[in-house]
């Protein structure tokens, strides 16, 4: 921090922050305010670490001084105001690992601004403390330097993003939080309308339709750090409410949007002192599923899935030849060093792929120049040799093979790939591995209704060269959808949109909506298409996920100030909670369950 920045933090209760003082301040009388972080007694002298958001300063209370009794009685997390003289620490006592480690504050006055109850957990070392406890006392959890640093970084990065987009003439526009329910892939949170009994608002799963209408309104370039709400099953990277870097552009194609997003990511990482290369690598959806078994592969690691169907097309091994005869595939992945896995380890990996849908897993270990496997007797020497060559197998490696429908083999080996990375910890090829995954299928069959449904959202445009297949072969139409992946996490998803009513209504019809239903559910957007809607597209990037990856957290709850648990509860505020009968009556709602 510069002196100017710190000077701006001076208030009626402090002249400096606890992270500001250094040797240049020696001899000056200053006032600090913060929390008692820790206290120790060395030979009768009390040393207090006083902490605020900006750092820690060591405060000294000498025995016999007027402040000694107050310092002695103060306990962890007492809010204190301390006035004293800045003194240089003797050379041997200086702490060069601490920004304020060259000085200490000899206290002339200590004032207790507020006492604290005994803490429910140690803020300095919370190992073993449940997340539930941390969330219940979130106001204490956020005092921990690690958590505070996460939130400060989140705030700083939002400024970097805004400045970058403002410089490209994007306009920040707020879209409604009270809207109508439309099918967008997850369940809506709904809000009853008191003035319209029996009718409900929905909280937006995304600003999708509104940002498209903004393009149809001529805004050209829109962005928003948008709040989104989705009533879905929660996990470490999902919250019922989350923040999205949402942007939309007119008169663009996929490459135009990619260039803007790549520039934004370069700006974000440059602000952290990190340099990333652009343009980012890109792959077709079909290719990434073949090569990595996932549409969000972690490309920090080199493990690749290889198709081996040709090797086993005439195999005597019925597991392979039978799968191929049924129109399936035989695919394999190599684990470098995995020959050290025990039989028990192999059984666990087999159970893993079975949970993912596979019938089983064939594995072979290559040790001391020869193969070892319960399935080895079914494979010819030519097949063994071809497999070794195809996967570049070396001594100490193991090979894992799935034989099934491509739609089953891909995700099973993708899950296995992730497990091999976790177990083998291979060398990273790079620190930040971005990837564009492009041209997902436009439609897929809904297993419940049998109708076609969207794979991304219903407004995604088909690839122009494949749009004609909507009439004859809709299941094989690729879309203008793209996902941005970072280190194995789906960071963002977007597309070029339909901008003509004809195409949009054709897609809705395939999904089972007649024109009357389209008008009822989507009138806002389809009506706007009738009035010269421009070609447009955009993307939504998970801001919580981005900050979480940068901070190295396992859960996005660690980069959100007041998150919910996996059951959707806020333990600090006790939400959700019942409402009283008067409120229910006003809303014309009766609880029957």
Description of the structure:
The chain is an alpha+beta fold and 593 residues long. The protein is built from 16 helices and 22 strands. It has an 8-stranded mixed sheet, sandwiched between helices. It has a 5-stranded mixed barrel with strand order 1-2-3-5-4. A 5-stranded antiparallel sheet has the order 12-13-16-14-15. Strand 2 (45-52) and strand 3 (55-61) form a beta hairpin. Helix 10 packs across helix 12. The radius of gyration is 30 Å and the shape is globular. 35% of the residues are buried. The mean pLDDT is 94.
User: Approximately how much beta-strand content do the residues carry?
Assistant: 15-25%
- The CATH topology of the largest domain is what? BirA Bifunctional Protein, domain 2
Q: Order of strands in the sheet with the most strands? A: 6-9-10-22-21-20-17-11
Shape: globular
The chain-level mean pLDDT equals: 94
Query: Based on DSSP secondary structure assignment, what is the total number of beta strands?
Result: 22
Summed up, the domain count is: 3
Distance between the amino and carboxyl termini: 57 Å
- List low-confidence stretches: none
Biggest sheet descriptor: 8 strands, mixed
Class per helix and strand makeup = alpha+beta
Question: Which properties best describe this structure?
Answer:
single chain; 593 residues; alpha+beta; OB fold (Dihydrolipoamide Acetyltransferase, E2P); BirA Bifunctional Protein, domain 2; Gyrase A, domain 2; 8-stranded mixed sheet; 5-stranded mixed β-barrel; 16 helices; 22 strands; globular
Which helices and strands, and how do they pair?
Elements: H1 3-7, E1 29-42, E2 45-52, E3 55-61, H2 68-73, E4 79-88, E5 103-114, H3 131-136, H4 138-141, H5 145-167, E6 171-172, E7 190-192, E8 200-202, H6 208-216, E9 221-229, E10 241-250, H7 254-270, E11 282-284, H8 285-292, E12 305-307, H9 318-325, E13 329-335, H10 343-355, E14 362-367, E15 370-372, H11 381-390, E16 398-404, H12 406-424, E17 434-438, E18 443-445, E19 452-454, E20 481-486, E21 489-496, H13 501-510, H14 515-529, E22 536-542, H15 543-551, H16 581-586
Parallel strand pairs: 3-5, 6-9, 11-17
Antiparallel strand pairs: 1-2, 1-4, 2-3, 4-5, 7-8, 9-10, 10-22, 12-13, 13-16, 14-15, 14-16, 17-20, 18-19, 20-21, 21-22
Helix pairs in contact: 5-7, 5-15, 6-14, 8-12, 10-12, 13-14
């Amino acid at each position: 921090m510069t002196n100017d920045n710190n000077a701006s933090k001076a208030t009626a209760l402090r002249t400096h922050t606890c992270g500001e003082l250094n040797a240049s301040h020696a001899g000056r009388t200053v006032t600090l305010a913060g929390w008692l972080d820790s206290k120790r007694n060395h030979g009768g002298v009390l040393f207090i670490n006083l902490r605020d958001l900006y750092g820690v300063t060591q405060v000294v209370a000498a025995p016999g001084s007027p402040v000694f009794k107050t310092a002695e009685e103060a306990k962890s997390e007492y809010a204190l105001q301390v006035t004293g003289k800045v003194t240089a620490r003797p050379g041997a006592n200086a702490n060069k690992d601490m920004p304020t480690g060259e000085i200490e504050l000899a206290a002339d006055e200590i004032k207790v601004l507020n006492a604290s109850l005994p803490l429910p957990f140690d803020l300095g070392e919370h190992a073993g403390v449940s997340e539930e406890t941390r969330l219940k006392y979130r106001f204490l959890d956020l005092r921990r330097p690690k958590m505070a640093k996460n939130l400060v970084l989140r705030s700083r990065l939002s400024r970097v993003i805004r400045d970058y987009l403002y410089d490209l003439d994007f306009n920040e526009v707020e879209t409604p939080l009270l809207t109508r329910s439309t099918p967008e892939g997850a369940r809506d949170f709904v809000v009853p309308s008191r003035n319209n009994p029996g009718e409900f608002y929905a909280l937006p799963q995304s600003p999708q339709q509104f940002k498209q209408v903004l393009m149809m309104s001529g805004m050209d370039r829109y962005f928003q750090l948008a709040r989104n709400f989705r009533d879905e099953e929660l996990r470490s990277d999902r919250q019922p409410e989350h923040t999205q870097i949402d942007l939309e552009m007119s008169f663009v194609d996929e490459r135009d949007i990619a260039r803007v997003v790549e520039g934004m990511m370069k700006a974000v990482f440059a602000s952290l002192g990190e340099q990333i290369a652009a343009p980012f690598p890109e792959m077709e959806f079909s290719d990434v599923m073949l090569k990595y078994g996932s549409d969000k592969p972690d490309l920090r690691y080199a493990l690749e899935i290889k198709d081996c169907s040709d090797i086993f097309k005439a195999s005597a091994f019925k597991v392979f030849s039978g799968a191929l005869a049924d129109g399936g595939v035989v695919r394999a992945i190599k684990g470098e060093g995995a020959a050290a896995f025990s039989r028990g380890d192999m059984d666990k990996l087999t159970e893993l792929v079975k949970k993912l849908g596979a019938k089983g897993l064939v594995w072979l270990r290559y040790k001391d120049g020869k193969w070892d496997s319960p399935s080895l007797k079914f494979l010819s020497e030519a097949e063994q040799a071809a497999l070794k060559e195809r996967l570049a197998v070396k001594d100490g490696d193991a090979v894992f093979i799935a034989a099934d429908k491509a739609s089953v083999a891909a995700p099973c080996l993708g899950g296995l790939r992730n497990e091999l990375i976790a177990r083998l910890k291979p060398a990273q090829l790079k620190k930040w591995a971005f990837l564009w995954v492009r041209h997902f299928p436009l439609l897929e069959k809904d297993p419940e209704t049998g109708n076609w449904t969207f794979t991304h959202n219903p407004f995604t445009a088909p690839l122009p060269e494949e749009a004609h297949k909507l009439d004859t072969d809709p299941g094989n139409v690729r879309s203008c959808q793209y996902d941005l992946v970072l280190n194995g996490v789906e960071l963002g998803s977007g597309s070029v949109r339909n901008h003509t009513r004809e195409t949009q209504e054709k897609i809705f019809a395939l999904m089972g909506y007649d024109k009357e239903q389209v008008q009822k559910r989507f009138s806002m957007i389809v009506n706007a298409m009738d009035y010269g809607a421009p070609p447009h597209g955009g993307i939504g990037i998970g801001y919580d996920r981005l900050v979480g990856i940068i901070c190295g957290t396992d859960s996005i709850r660690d980069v959100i100030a007041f998150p919910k648990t996996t059951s959707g509860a806020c333990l600090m505020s006790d939400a959700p909670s019942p409402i009283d009968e008067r409120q229910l009556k006003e809303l014309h709602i009766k609880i029957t369950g």
